[in-house]
Fold this protein.
Amino acid sequence: MEVWNLYNLEGVKLKQTLIRGQKIPKGMYHMVVHIIIKNSNGEYLIQKRADTKESLPGIWAFTGGSAIIGEVSEDAALRELAEETGIHFNKGDLTFSRRLIKHNHFADIWYSHMDVDVSKLIFQKEEVSALDFKTKEEVLAMIELGEFHRYETEYLSAVFNI
C-alpha cells in the first residue's frame, strides 16, 4: 500500500494523507517526480513500462513516480531513479529544474548529465521492461506513433531545454 502526503497549491504539506488509488480532494495535490538523464550525445534516457503495469503498460516514458509519505522531492527522485533504472545517486547529484502544477499533482523535474551503458543497468522488472537513450526527435516520433507517453507541451519543453 502506497501512502502519499497531500499539499496545498503553495506546496505546503498538509496533515492529510492519501492511499494510492483514492480520489485526491479538490484543492489538494500530491507530488510526482520526474528524473531526466541526458548523455553527452544529447540523448535522453527513456524506459519502457512493464506490460503488467496498471497504468500505461508497455509504453515508453521518462523516469518518474509518486513521492511517498515522508519523502521530500529530491529523496523521491533518488528512490525512483534507483528503482526504475538501477542508477544510484546521492543527495546533491541531481539538479532541480522546475515544478509544474497539474490538476491534482505537482510534477517536479530533476535532471543530471551522464553517460551510462543501459545494458549494464539492473532495474525493477515489475516497473520497467527496457531502457534506452533517444534523441528529442526520436522521442517526438515515438509520441506520434503512440509508443511513448503523450506528455503535455509545457512538460516536453521543460525536458528538452535541459
Observations:
- The CA atoms of residues 94 and 102 lie 22 Å apart.
- The longest strand covers residues 30-38.
- Residues 3-160 form a domain with the Nucleoside Triphosphate Pyrophosphohydrolase fold (CATH 3.90.79.10).
- The two ends are 34 Å apart (CA to CA).
